[in-house]
Amino acid sequence: MKNIVAGHVPVTAIEFVELALGTPVELWLGVEGESEMERAARLDAARDILADHPDLPDQVSRVAAEAIEAFAPELFNVVPLTSPKTRRRPSRRSGVAA
Q1: Mean pLDDT of the chain
Q2: Torsion, Cα of 30, 22, 12, 37 (10° steps)
Q3: pTM for the structure as a whole
Q4: Which of 21, 40, 80, 93 is the most buried (most CB within 10 A)?
Q5: Pseudo-torsion of CA 55, 16, 32, 68, nearest 10°?
Q6: How far apart are CA 46 and CA 11, in angstroms?
């Protein structure tokens, strides 16, 4: 089965993410060796996009959760932690039971 996003068939995982988000991944993650000026411009553009699309972080989380569920469902197999059982000490009452 092919994954189609906005009428396009992505070839790589990066293309899938870019099509799903509508922005290049580098906008959010940066690129190696970028200058402080480039970084500031990139972050400014990212802030503008988030201001125009405040629901984008929720959409990204949904896409990530769906991808995990589809390709690595074992990551969602969560085992609840149990609290340690406390041992009760025997009662130290003395006397005769009535």
Answers
A1: 80
A2: -20
A3: 0.55
A4: 21
A5: 70
A6: 25
